[in-house]
Structure formats: structure tokens, C-alpha cells
Amino acid sequence: RMTNYISNKLNLDLKKAKELQTSYFHKYNTSLNGLMIHHNVDPIDFLKFVHDVDLSFLKKNKNLRNELINLNLKKYVFTNGSKEHVENIIHHLGIEDLFDGAFDITDCNFIPKPAVEPYKLLVKKFDINPEETVFIEDIAKNLEPAKKLGMKTVWLINDEYWGKKDSDKDFIDLKIKNLSSFLKEINILKVA
How far is residue 92's CA from residue 160's CA, in Å, rounded to a whole number? Predict the structure, then answer.
């Protein structure tokens, strides 16, 4: 959807649009950020278009739901995407009622992770104590600002080039393969 948007908006063929999308993502941490800087793209228009996706392939995740319920702590979603996209995803997973809030790219004036400013705004908005926070992320480099603020950091292991970049750095406290299993371990330790 991003490639199509860029192609249509900038009158580029799909190959050139994909190259620009990737280039901006690597240079500016989101393709949107690069499009705003260089092409004055309306971010709301962009977000509506690219997040208008069919997520029917996502199935309700009963294990994740149970572990989130058992966690019995405040839980927030922090995304470089939109709240509408978050709502769509968590609805399809069957966990939409288990979060205390969502913090999206509009909440941080379109400054994406891993810039530290959005993390500070997140902490302020939800009155979060970083020293009592576990920050879980699938893009390793997005954990660095969380660690600098005093959070415990957890990288959700994946093989995406961008996701695993910097996954060998010491700002990552823990690496996990499965979120439900990790939450289950936390819940077991809470009871013990």
C-alpha cells in the first residue's frame, strides 16, 4: 500500500516508488517522515491509505489474551503507525479491551521512533515510571531510547533486516522468540 501511495502521489513507476519508500525508511525511520520532509505529503492522508488493509488473516490469539489478562499491569501500545491501525490489529487478535492506551505517530507530532522525543512524550502522557517499565519491541534499534530512559528492554526476535539491525547491542536486556511465552514466564514468576 505504501508503494502504491508513493507511486500515485509522486507519479513514479512501482519500482522507483519502492526504492524511494525503502530509502526514506532507512534514512528517516519511517517512509512517511521522508515523504513529509521532501514532498510535503499529508500524513493523515498517507496513514489512512496505507493502513486500510484487510487483516482477516490474523486470528484471535487466545494464549496472548490469557497472558495479557493475567499480567494485571498497565499496558500500552507505542507505534510509528496510526491508532486506527493498532485498533484494527488488536481487534483481529481479540485483545482490544486489554490495553490502557495507545500512543501513535500523531501523538508525537510525526517524529518516529527511535528519536527520544516520542518516548519522553509517551512517558509524560501516561505518567509512566521508566524504572518500572518493560519495553518490548520488534525493531531492535527502537529499544535504545527506552534503555536510556531507564526501561528494561526486550527484543522480539525476527529475521527482518531492519528488525534485527543493532540486535547485538547492549541496550537490549532480553531477547525473546514468542510474546505469549514470555508473558507466561512473567506471570509464573509473579506467583512464585
Answer: 23
State how far the alpha carbon of 94 is from the alpha carbons of 64, 81, 90, 165, 183, in Å. 9, 19, 6, 30, 16
pLDDT in tens, 137-163: 999 999 999 999 999 999 999 999 999
Do 137 and 165 contact (CB within 8 A), yes or no? no
pTM for the complete prediction?
Answer: 0.91
Question: DSSP class of residue 169?
Answer: S
Sheet holding 134-137, edge to edge: 134-137, 152-156, 174-176
3-state secondary structure of 157: coil
Question: What is the sign, positive or negative, of the torsion defined by CA atoms of 161, 114, 77, 149?
Answer: positive
DSSP class of residue 81 equals S
Beta bridge partners of 156: 176
Closest CA to 33 of 140, 148, 115: 115
- Predicted confidence (pLDDT) per residue in 7-28, tens digit: 999 999 999 999 999 999 999 9
